[in-house]
Amino acid sequence: MRKLSNIYAITSIVVIGGLLQGFDISSLSAIISTKPFKTHYGSPDSTTQGGITASISGGSFIGCLAAFALMDYLGRRLLLQIGDVIFIIGAILCAASVDIAMLIVGRFLCGFGVGIFTSTGPTLLAELTKREIRGRIVSLQQWAITWGALIMYYISYGASFTKNNSTFIIPWAVQIAPALLMFFGLFFVPLSPRWLASKDRWEETLQVLADLHGNGNAESPLVRAEYIEIREAISIDNSRGHVSWSELIQKDNILRVSCGISVHVWTQLSGNNAILYYVVYIFTMAGLTGNIKLVSASIQYVINCAMTLPAILFLDKVGRRPALLFGSVMMMAWLFATAGLLKVYGHYVPDGVDGQAVVKWVVHGPASKAVIACTYLLTATYSCTWAPISWVYPPEIFPTRLRGKAVSIATSANWILGFALNYFTPPAFQQIQWKTFIIFGVFNVVAGLQAFFFFPETKRKTLEDIDEIFASGRPAWRRKLQQEDDRLITLVENIEHGKIDV
């Protein structure tokens, strides 16, 4: 079967996994406050609601651990197809669920598939893409997530007008179609050249590189240079023997692992994901009700989608570090402003706002509009900084022998934090109200400090050259990235002048 060679066509298939993740993010947002949902599932309290929402993240965490064990053995493409099958089973269970237990099992299985997608998809794209556009291509994972969240929110909103169980059955059943499309589309996606090389399938490695980066010409100097780099990296990897858990915490790798895990941890603790999952509650705090509340909440998803575009267009020019630092500072400002507005102009409602026991703090008037504006600005900042970079950065910074396992571990941190936040957020809104936003603001301060001192810049470097960046041992904040005099360019020039042959 002839494989695709256009990286954008390949990416459009792989990032359907991100679309499905986005579906899960918003598949409850417009449903949880509807009468059919409350009637069918017995008006779940804040703890139960947190459990229903968190089941996705719990399943995703386990899915990442499965990817850790299987990605290097089965390969990236086959594992993604297995994730599709599991996701489809979960979506069927959700749509057919008769009680909370069945719903949680279905959402857990959907999450399991998403865990595979989010650890394996970015890894495959990073290994297939030219370094000059790697940030753009992997950022499309986040853009797909935002589109999924936006589309599912409006599907859920539209289904809410049915006033019956179709309110939640339709959104959960719709997820099956894109999962099937991804499953069959993956047959046309090439295997990772670096995974092929790790299995000593060198002819296939060269052919994939030629198809992707040389218009089918295996004699292209760029293709031959990349082939040499991969051979040398695999040779070094093979000399080290079998990958063990202990290697992830060795001196040469501990910084990489901590950076890979931390970028996902701080993305979750930024506060934006908690707001997206429970945006209806936030806008209830802001004094909105009924359809106005739901439509206003949907704007959050529109902003999330639109503001990912700047990252896609400029991340490979601006770089990872400046975007992360800017994002931390601005998100901190919006969260502290939200907390201040709620504290100064809001008041406590003992019995809950609009009959919702979870929401016990409300603000009205101009301060209400300011709170809504701050949540919009928070999402806008997050969407063009930490959100896309959390998918780009981890696959870049690990060597081939560790990439599959290490990216899975890093992504699992995203989901275990997501699991905790989904449980934490409703009770936090109920118990400490506006102080919840201060906690998230402080997390952004710490995230910015770690990014400044420990996250090296990786833009426009080959995956093999990034190994040398971490091996140099120089502090991230003192390291200057050289773009012109790098190893790949030197290899290409030497091949063009006949100094090196493959």
From TrEMBL:
<dbReference type="GO" id="GO:0016020">
    <property type="term" value="C:membrane"/>
</dbReference>
<dbReference type="InterPro" id="IPR050360">
    <property type="entry name" value="MFS_Sugar_Transporters"/>
</dbReference>
<comment type="similarity">
    <text>Belongs to the major facilitator superfamily. Sugar transporter (TC 2.A.1.1) family.</text>
</comment>
<dbReference type="InterPro" id="IPR036259">
    <property type="entry name" value="MFS_trans_sf"/>
</dbReference>
<feature type="transmembrane region" description="Helical">
    <location>
        <begin position="323"/>
        <end position="342"/>
    </location>
</feature>
<feature type="domain" description="Major facilitator superfamily (MFS) profile">
    <location>
        <begin position="10"/>
        <end position="459"/>
    </location>
</feature>
<feature type="transmembrane region" description="Helical">
    <location>
        <begin position="7"/>
        <end position="32"/>
    </location>
</feature>
<keyword id="KW-1133">Transmembrane helix</keyword>
<feature type="transmembrane region" description="Helical">
    <location>
        <begin position="52"/>
        <end position="71"/>
    </location>
</feature>
<dbReference type="Pfam" id="PF00083">
    <property type="entry name" value="Sugar_tr"/>
</dbReference>
<feature type="transmembrane region" description="Helical">
    <location>
        <begin position="169"/>
        <end position="191"/>
    </location>
</feature>
<feature type="transmembrane region" description="Helical">
    <location>
        <begin position="104"/>
        <end position="125"/>
    </location>
</feature>
<keyword id="KW-0813">Transport</keyword>
<keyword id="KW-0472">Membrane</keyword>
<dbReference type="InterPro" id="IPR005829">
    <property type="entry name" value="Sugar_transporter_CS"/>
</dbReference>
<dbReference type="InterPro" id="IPR003663">
    <property type="entry name" value="Sugar/inositol_transpt"/>
</dbReference>
<dbReference type="GO" id="GO:0005351">
    <property type="term" value="F:carbohydrate:proton symporter activity"/>
</dbReference>
<feature type="transmembrane region" description="Helical">
    <location>
        <begin position="137"/>
        <end position="157"/>
    </location>
</feature>
<feature type="transmembrane region" description="Helical">
    <location>
        <begin position="437"/>
        <end position="455"/>
    </location>
</feature>
<protein>
    <submittedName>
        <fullName>General substrate transporter</fullName>
    </submittedName>
</protein>
<dbReference type="InterPro" id="IPR020846">
    <property type="entry name" value="MFS_dom"/>
</dbReference>
<keyword id="KW-0812">Transmembrane</keyword>
<feature type="transmembrane region" description="Helical">
    <location>
        <begin position="370"/>
        <end position="394"/>
    </location>
</feature>
<feature type="transmembrane region" description="Helical">
    <location>
        <begin position="406"/>
        <end position="425"/>
    </location>
</feature>
<feature type="transmembrane region" description="Helical">
    <location>
        <begin position="298"/>
        <end position="316"/>
    </location>
</feature>
<feature type="transmembrane region" description="Helical">
    <location>
        <begin position="275"/>
        <end position="292"/>
    </location>
</feature>
<feature type="transmembrane region" description="Helical">
    <location>
        <begin position="78"/>
        <end position="98"/>
    </location>
</feature>
<dbReference type="InterPro" id="IPR005828">
    <property type="entry name" value="MFS_sugar_transport-like"/>
</dbReference>
